[in-house]
Structures
1.
Amino acid sequence: KLACPRSARLWTSHCSLLYNMCQQRPSALRREERGHAALGEGGAASNAGAAAASKDPPRRKWSSGAEFTIACIGYAVGLGNFWRFPALCFNNGGGAFLVPYTLTLLLIGMPIFLLELGMGQKFQIGGAELWKRVHPSLGGLGVASITATAIVAVYYNVVVCWALWYFFRSFAWDGVLPWAESRGGALQFWEVDTLHCRPAQNLSSAAPETCAWGAGTTWPQEPGIARPGPLVWPLVGCLALGWVLVWLCVCKGVHSAGKVAWFTALFPYAVLLALLVRGLSLPGAHVGLKWYLTPSFDKLAEPQVWVAAASQIFYSTGIGWGTLPAFASYNRHDHNFVRDAWLVPVINCGTSFLAGLAAFSVPRTHAPPPLALTAERCAPGLVVFSVLGDMSQETGVPIDEMQIEGSGLAFVVYPQAIAKLPVAPLFALLFFTMLLCLGLDSEFSMVETILTAVDDAGVGQNYPRAVKAAAACLAMFGVGLLFVTRGGLHWLELVDGYAANLTLFIVGGVECLAVGWVYGADRFAADTLEMAKAKLPKALLWNYKLVVPALLAVLTVQAFVSTATSKVHFPPYAVALGWCLALASALPIPLLAIRPLCCPPPYASEGLTSPRERAGLVGKLAASLHRLSRSLSFGASSRGASSAPAPSGLPPELSTERADVELAAAREVR
């Protein structure tokens, strides 16, 4: 105290705060220590002390940088490349859709991809806790991302279950695939033999409408949303097997997931190239390719085209879901994530383009089949359009008059095309193995994100990773049983349409605002230079601050309007349920942002708020007003300081510069 009174006062204040935290919030203290150790604040001795205090094992790491890159490619390249992208191209003007898709990738997708990788690698923690470290009011970002990921993970594995069913049925020892023997072709096998959403005796030219919502649908429909009907037991078994495969991929964390990713990420490209060659060799492939590659620029004036392009970028690249920060948190501190930030999105979008090219050339039976196919019923980019071109030439129906929307490209168009190939069962096995790889890669990445959030929150620390993974998979399997009922397809379309679109746009915009203005764009650039040895251009930093938030704000409003005025004829109670799902994943962002305003500091002591709380938005505003009032009345405060009583029972030597102590502590924490 005699040598440096100010240091003594600061030390006394910190001791008081530390004592209170140890008494009231030991778990919070342990999380803070783990965070400081991960950030490297205080050197090796601090890291060792924090690790010893938390008694947690060191954070797992990827075996190599290439393993991380392959895992990101496997996560990004999924079923969406093979069923969402071609259907969006088909319904939004063919080649015209590629224009907003490419612009959205460059202006929004790749910058946010870089941002999430950089922040995850810097803080060495998953997305659920990451944004809370940046600022306490941003904790809702992580909760919203994990909620959206959990909702999608539940129904995404149902698509893997469908692929497993088709895979097993492809073992045709007589050389004839079961959907080739069906009277209604692949469409009847899909709706009657697989989903059981309509009886076989109702097969007619208008029958495909019975398994989809249409303008003439009467309520209540059975099977439907209100009455989903009984479980389809073959699909229940396939769903259980799908979750067992996911558990095997994530039971040991990134060590098991990284090894699996080498096969699941690379094998689909071999099958895709084979399908592309086959599709381009069809007689009518040029019709589909011309329609696919020729843009209709009048479509660019429709706002829903831009919303669809942005939505597909978020779904295909995986931004906004919390998975990329979780994956990057297992990197070494000096990994070059800037290279991955442009390499992975380019490979992903190139895969979508090639997939669409191949699928729009694959053939169908020579008898004119029902053409009311749903969006998921048509398969990927170049592959898809070459298949549809041949279908158009055989049936005489123009491509732009075909109805492609929903969930059947991969389970109607491609199976019908494969049935016409020589050695059809072999090609069917390869194709559905590819779908399994694509689905499992994305699915276990989402489950790994959820488990990383659980680990970072300190939940279930006494249980091994395999037990926590089994509990998560079992819970999601139980919820997913709803989607393998006879009305499960309707539930899947409802959840897929409402669950995550608005949330992803909001999360992406708030993340950019958080890094651009709260964390600091210049600070993020300095971190990137330190970790990846790459200098970010100033234009990219201003993109984070202004351009991306503004674009996503416009897209969010338009997405809200488009969803509210959607032409999908769900019943009113289903629409209300869909909006509840959308709000369930989006509401944590504003609710947790205003929590510091409504709740008292968690560990206040003797009238002193904690440094972390003083670093909040409200603390910054209060500190600024306090400094202003002190500067305006400095003289009066100085004259009356000696006679003023000590507030809150503090010693007189601490009362005069109490605000300075708090501000210094807040600066030290920041």
2.
Amino acid sequence: KARIGGDEACEPSEELRLWMVQLLRGDLATRCAKDHLVAYAPDIISVVVRGLDDPFHEVKKETCRLICDLPTLVGSRGALLEHAETIVKGVVRNMAHPHYKVRVLLVSAVDAVVGMRPSREVVDKLVATILHEATFDKARQVRGRVYECMASWLAIVEEEEKVPLEAGAEVGAGVRAPEPLYAEILLPFYLVGMLDEEREIREVSRQRLEEVCARNAEAGCYPAGPHEDGGEGGNLVRRMVRHHLKHIAIVCKRDSAEWTKNKNLSAARLLRVATEIAGRDMDPYLGSIVPLLCNAIGNENEDIAQHIVRCTHHIGAACDPESWACTLLDTLNNPKSSIPNRANALVVLAGLVHGCSQTGREMGADTLAALASTLASEEIRGAGHYAINNQLLSVITNVLEAFGGGCGPVSRDLYHVLLQLQALRDDDALRSGAVLVTQRLAEACGYESAASFASGHSEDLLRVLCGTCAEWTKDSPDQFVFAALVFNCSAEVLARLYDQVTEVFCSCLSQERDPHVRLETLKVVDRLLEDQDRNGFIRPSSMRFLAEVLLPPAVWQAGKTAASIRFHAIVAIGTFFREDLMSPTELVQVLIDDRYQLLPTIHSSLEEDYYADTRLCSCHTLAALLNCIGTKLTNDQKRLVYPELVKRLDDSSDKVRIQACATLEAFVGCLEPDYCETNTGYILKGILIHMDDTNPEVQEAVCLVVEKLAKVKPGITRGSLHEVREQHRGVAFIDRVLGSM
């Protein structure tokens, strides 16, 4: 003790310090009687403490071996127990030693101390600290030794004790069944080892736990319940875990809230093993476990997240859905829940529902309705966050897998969510996935196709959307749902629902609405008009559609925003005529009816100051109109049209000039041989000057108009060409037209 057991070691030689510990462990201890060594227990402990802190690793290792031999050498457990805390504190200080062999022997030293049955306080405060580090030690030898020791500690059973009898109880009824002395403290640590990185450690840990539970059962620990068989192996383990489940839940909650990765991972592993073993016994604790799952599932560590997902599968497979659904729905419906919190809750919900599908568990009709209603709420399906959208699709996929045909009563709400996902613009994969899941939902509900399914739900959904469309803003999710719904319906369904569809269009296109809503609506209208599988529903009411939907937003109004809206309206009108959605006879009626003001509206767009593209699209639109009406265009209407087109040949944009020529070609197609010579002369006078333009593309475009006009009115065309031939710098295009006549 004087050389190596004092506060400061006097012996500078490492070899001598090692020899002294070996001497104490060897000759001195074996040659002295145990009752004599008891008197020197404090001095031996002083040497042990200094030996553990010795900088020479061989001294540390020999000291650990000495600790392992102390119970045999001293013989008096009581004499050593009073120093148990001191020894364990020395071990705690050295558990970070870089040599794994030292750490293995330190664990063995703790094993010897715990074997002396120290107080639970020592185990809880000091041994547990060692276990927190050792269970995640980088050396598998250390971890293997830790779990081997813990298995033996779990088999230390307290002695039977008497508890006071309650009034009226029978004699002997107060005898409490014995329990493993440290099970409540150690079991959570041991269960973590059943998911160790090393396969051998995992398998051996499970086997040892079954053996320990079998021995404890023989000692009377954890008796079976009144309706439970005695069981073997896994059943015995389940009884042990069930007995300590409350404490396990507390440990999981505590460690998952820590900031260290190892404690978070420990909590995730523990919860996964506990949910796997406990099964339906988890029901009473789900009120605290489900929020824990929601918090832990968002951990950045992938391993932790994977363990939590497996926990949800175990709970979903074993527990009653009524026991976890309410907690999750409260989280989703809480207005204070953030987007990440809701996304995490949806991940947990998807996992739980998937677990239900594995065991065929049914969810009550009211609970399923509440779940579907929550998913379809604007706050959830309209959150617009990728994580939420992705998990919504996963939840609905798993709901269909788990409950199949039972989804019929809630199919409208589920369809509402899927339409929201189909309306996404920047995620093709998610949108395609939503289309496929919609098909599966239709099949689960007994429909032949997604179109027939849409037909069965469109009227109800449109009724809902019509009731809210007046309140839509640029961020309202229902405006995108409406677009998706329209493109899910067949032409026959849209024809039946024409009034409801146009009611939404008219409401969203009214002048007082948010410009963003008006623009989005016009884009939807244009897409619908281009869709040849669906646009046929407009033909029976084409005049109404033109007057009520297309023309009002195309009317000129001041401002750049109004100009943008006007551009999209003109594009939609052009698509309307290009797709032949109005017959020539109906178009004649529209043009002669001053209430429509179709030509004046297009002419005003040809004069657009803000955007050259509006002038360009107006030329396209007028060309489509002229192609539709053909020779039924009246002379008065012709006198209104051609001056506007000739004027466009002086446009600042060559693209507009070239398209104006193409529109003039369509206009010439409306002329007949007896058309007025005077007006034909005016047309030629306005366009021939541009056949000498500096841009060859413009020259070519004008030449094509003149060639076509020459076929209808050859006489005046030939005369006009001869008049300007001498004035043009180049005569190639003039000669080309003359040569074709």
3.
Amino acid sequence: ATEEGGRRSRYNILPGGVTKSVEDTFGYAYNLLCESSPSYAKESSELSRLMENEQKIGTYHFNQLIFDLAQYPQSFSGLLAQDLLEFMVARVASTPKKERENNPNVPKPTVETINGVLKAWMVTPNYHDAVARRVESVLAKLAGWQSDGTLWGVTPDTVSYNTCINCWKQSGIPGAAERATEILVLMEDDSTNIAPDAISYCSCMSAWAECAATNPRAGANAEAILTRMHSRGKENDDAPKPTTRCFNAVLLAYANGKQKGGGKRALELLRFMESLHSEDYVDCQPDSYTFNIVMKALTNSKETGAAQKANQLLRRMERSNDKGSTLQPDIFSYNIVLDAFSRIGDAESAEKLLQQMYDRSERGSIAKPNAHSYTAVLTAWARNGDGKAVATTRAEELFNNFERKYAAGETDVQADTSVYNALINVWAKSGERKALYRVTQILSTMEELGLQGGDESVAPNSRTYCAVLDCIARSRNFKAYNKALEVIKRMEDFYAEGHESVRPCARAYSIVISTIARSRKRDKAVKAQEMLRRMESEYVKGNVAARPTVYSYNGVLNAAAFTSGDERDQEEAFRVACLTFDELRISEYLQPTHVSYGTFLKSIRKLMPDSEIREKLVTSVFRRCCKEGLVGEMVLREMKALSSPDFYQSLMTGYDTKLGIPPKSFSANVVERDYDWRE
């Protein structure tokens, strides 16, 4: 906003012309909210009557309008609420002190005004990480108004600081949890005279839960706050005591963190919580959500025996509910345990639990199996290592049972995309001869029903196509090459028709490149390179998911390294290998890995005749590999196969080697693992 004469106004939304009177300012803000929110215009009867009767407008009315800006969030809610606060402060500053005290129509801000502005900022959409900083700036301005005497006696309270903590929690900014903790510590300081309540602690612990996926210390930090809260509560009867919500926030931090040991710690906290409840901490009773989070923490921790421990907790919930307790397992409880069995491939336990769900639902349980339940059991069979033939048989029986229940009228049990994808994965990983036929049959069904028939619940997505391509690659079928090209083309065509869910991704293209590399085509290096070019073309056209990865480049190098044929074929393959390796090396967003160097050295060994030129090239490549710290086991194997012991030792001259073993700096950036384009 600008004032007359083009000068920048102190306000963000309010025009300079309307701020000359209280009535005009209030009327402009009220009308703006009414125009933007028809529902507000219908419901704001009190302020509407005030405007019609031309009554004097004071603090109460401004506060009500600011609260309404928070209750009916608009893109301008925070800005306009702050403008109204700034206007109120300006009116107070321009009014003689005696008149302020005796005239109730001078809209003097109160702590409720401040809290209303903070709330309006908290709910303002599209500001994201800026909201928390805006809220802190309001409190900083309030401190300035206090110090200069404009708003003497108007001080922030616990609600003000809680709102600030919540804004940091919701911001998602790196360091948000740390800042929320700093504010909590400030509240704990006796000199501030603003005591934290249970909401303060719970919000701060929740901030750590929000960032737990990226901060390995989140669970421990949240627990430290809980411990401090408990200690302060024991020392002072007036201090807040830990509640169920507080414990749940800490448990969620451990569950979201997925750190090893998080499940064990969550179990210990559950026991501590139960012991406090037995000591008459009435607001500290574990509920169904508590148990669900602990089971989730166990599942995510990947600790030995985690699935069994989660299942034991589920049994506890069932027994408690059978005895009349309100602690009732819901669908999330069962699905969490099914996911735990799924992760370790314990298909028999998963299927047994699925049947128990049906048995209990017949006796009145609210937890009836859904699509997620079946997906988890099917995934458990895909990961089961006891017998792939058994896995496909049981998976088909489960799927058919699912379909029969839906046909019989159980419409809440309908196979969706995730169920179909899980069934495809069982077949893809089975290695059975008819797997290729079955997965392409399932894909055709999904395309017919979902993409062509309009049933989005069963429409294939990128994961579907990747699973099918994975099956094709594993099949070793002589038709795999053509099948892979056919499937990726269908994927591209459906995406071009506007089906966003089947957007071709780098993983899909990389699997196709790997399939090409495994074929017996004499020109497979060229064909793999052409597929890489298709990826790049898709990426340039705006499909960011198709941006080539290092696995894509390594797949082309692999195709070149295993090219057979006559001299001309091998020369062309070597040209492809050199060009691909150079493109990877100078890429703006990718870097070669030890697999890239190892595969390129393999290409040199298999495609380039022994000569002085080859020796110079090997020397150059190996030294660059050493410099980049990428000398892995594959590189060493290829170097030993490429060169004589004397030549290899000559390359080590000048380096601190022991018994011919390269120094650790040569492998400093190697992450040794079996290379797999499916990763």
4.
Amino acid sequence: RCHKRKMRFHALVAAAAAILPSATSTGAFAPKAFVARKHGSDTFLVSSTVAEITTSPIAGMKPGTSGLRKKVEVWQGVDDANKYYVENFIQSLIDTAAENNGGKMIDTVIVAGDGRYFNNEAIQIICKVLAANGVKNIWVPQGGIMSTPAVSAAIRMREGGSAQGGIILTASHNPGGPGEDFGIKYNEEYGQPAGEDFTDALYEKTTEITSFKSLEGGDDIDLGADVNTSFQLTEESAVTIIDPFAEYVEVLKSCFDFDALRAFAQRPGFTLLFDGMHGAGGPFAKRVLVEELGFPESSLMRCDPKPDFGKCHPDPNLTYAAELVKKMGLNADGSASDFTDETPTIGAANDGDGDRNLIAGAGCFVTPSDSLAMICDNWKAIPHFSKAGGPKGVARSMPSSAALDVVAEALDIPFFSTPTGWKFFGNLMGSKEQFDQRDYTPFLCGEESFGTGSDHIREKDGLWAMLAWVSILMDANKDVAEGEPLVSVKDIVSKHWSKYGRHFYCRYDYEAVDSDAANKMMDLIRTDLVAGDVSSIGADESGIKLADGEEFSYTDPVDGSTTSKQGLILNFEFENGDAARAVFRLSGTGSAGATIRMYLEKYEKDESKHGEAAPVALKSLAERAIGLVQLEQITGRDAPTVIT
């Protein structure tokens, strides 16, 4: 049947070519008189030409920790200086991918986005560039929207893992809409974010580009077409509309016991609330929580994607997920407020592209660092780990708290501290699969910036984290008789702190700081407090003394690569001898200016102090660190944008 369709296509093109005049374009091109659009058994024809269009480099296309993010108007090319911004970046990206593929153009790519403003327009532009460059199979999810975890799953699993990469249109947890952010990131053939070698090469190509290929003329792809509809853009390149859910749901079912979870969802007294923040994760939450597990629709809030995220900032933290936080019986600082028997047992939130998570119980906020440690300690409740006898490796980003470290040590699990950026976990997860070295799977990892995940895919996964917690609750309540009070999230957290101690932890974000000022402050820390002699710096009136400073660098244990300048660490000592630290780094996820992040941590073994709100417990440490680095004087900021 495929052979007959191909013959039919050739015949239609040949017939059409005989009656069409020659085409012209802004550069060299190969004319394609007609392009077939195949919908089921029907074939439609539209005119199109492949063109090579002259362009010039556009400054500033260096990807950060997770792709390239800019204001959406930059990507739209509103100013002449940014004309062809998307085309330049995508041409450089696929040229890099081809170079890494032995000089041969990759043949199968997923193109999907989180649904933010300019999502669908960018998909159309990208598909034309890919087709003109000879990418044979371009897979686009129905509606154009797909969470980042789902893209990773589809790269790894669809048609036996035949996709060689995925182009994801997202600025993650950054706002969307006119005047807000847009971004593009690339995931490689194992579903993992592109490494620094790839993004560095991509950036170099953006500085040298002189032309790009694209299609001229022809109708746009119907992103709302039925699944499996195929649009033949050139004789060798086609766009196929795919089911966005299939592979992701399949991989979640391999991690968790869906039958048991479905039964637990009906348990009297157990309720759940999921906040999609109008991002890409919402439809996936509905598909899994409602359609697969049987939770009521009332368990979902803001699960309809919107181009501007409903005017909200889609970052699942205490500040921006304020509505959920309140519904969970929490104050803005994460401390318990008024909650009742009607308060949901567990609540969670996703960010814009569905990979981050916030976890809370009734009157109990679980910090991302604690959540990671508690998932590790309760691995027997999660089939993905229990089937293998537990995790074979765990990791956290360096700025995250050491809560995971003490659990890993107690359970004798290999532990790693990496730079911020999920790509650094990728090598550890793929150590056996990609490098034929030690196998660390099943693997558990996370970042303090509300990212948690495992080796089921190669991205953090917000919905996975929630299902892990529901599984932990299900296991904790297996012997609780019906009608008796359920073991709560707060019970699990308190028990963990009693066993391991509490790592008080919070983060101060100073967003959109003048870049020169931010760098000046970092240079002061590096010169005076890390490289300099701090022995003469005594304790202040709080009694907190600076012990020493260091700059974090990382040598990858799998491929041997070294990454430097990954955060400045100031180690402190309280009057009673307790250790604490403050970490400073500039975030690579913003689109304008610089975001200064200050991470604060203090270990507390005394159970009588475990109930204090983290921002309160760490206030004196914050003031000491801010004063030492002269943050207010240098940046002009007298308060952080967010404390979480």
